[in-house]
Amino acid sequence: MIKKLLPIILALIGTGAGIGAGIMLKPAPPPEAEVAAVDCVAPAGDVAHTTVEAASPEEASPITNEYVKLTNQFIVPVMGDERVQALVVASLSVEVTQGMTETVYAREPKLRDVFLQIMFDHANIGGFNGSFTAGQRMDILRSALLDGARSVLGSEARDVLITEIARQDV
């Protein structure tokens, strides 16, 4: 009887401990901005009217970027003499202006297609041979990927980050 109840008891204890840890480690809410009280009564007599122009959005807050990690890795074959010589596996993220995350995910199939074609072309010109992580070779690949991202997302694409890259010889 105990053998049957032990897994259930352990699951309940683990769930309770997880919930308790989550509550205890919950970050504090951000402090509310304090608002100073302002006397809104105009003085008697002549009142001068002035207009205040609102600051442009660029002046009000700086443009912040978001980093969108593409869901799956890219696998690129490196061809040798009529056979696959190696496989390159890469993970990419796209830096976009704030609010574009959903757009990136909505256009991800097209974005993946463009990125794969660029990486296939890079492999075909020998970009993944030898010292493929050298600065100049990576700059060429990043530049091509950014051009591809801009062809799909427009000027909202700020950069393409190669977050992981590995080559496995077969």
Architecture overview:
It is a single chain. This protein has 170 residues and is an alpha+beta fold. It is built from five helices and four strands, in the order ααβββαααβ. Strands 1, 2, 3 and 4 form a four-stranded antiparallel beta sheet that branches. A hairpin with a 4-residue loop joins β2 (74-79) and β3 (84-97). The model is unreliable at 34-43 and 45-58 (pLDDT under 50).
Low-confidence stretches: 34-43, 45-58
Structural class: alpha+beta
Distance between the termini: 53 Å
Mean pLDDT: 80
Give me the count of strands.
Answer: 4
Along the chain, the helix and strand elements come as HHEEEHHHE
The value of Rg in angstroms is: 27 Å
The coarse silhouette is: flat
Helix content: 40-55%
β content, as a range?
15-25%
Number of helices: 5
* Major beta-sheet overview: 4 strands, antiparallel
List keywords for this structure.
5 helices; 170 residues; alpha+beta
List the helices and strands and how they pair.
Layout: H1 2-24, H2 57-60, E1 65-69, E2 74-79, E3 84-97, H3 101-106, H4 108-124, H5 135-153, E4 157-169
Can you give me a brief rundown of this structure?
The chain is of the alpha+beta class and 170 residues long. The protein has helices at 2-24, 57-60, 101-106, 108-124, 135-153; strands spanning 65-69, 74-79, 84-97, 157-169.
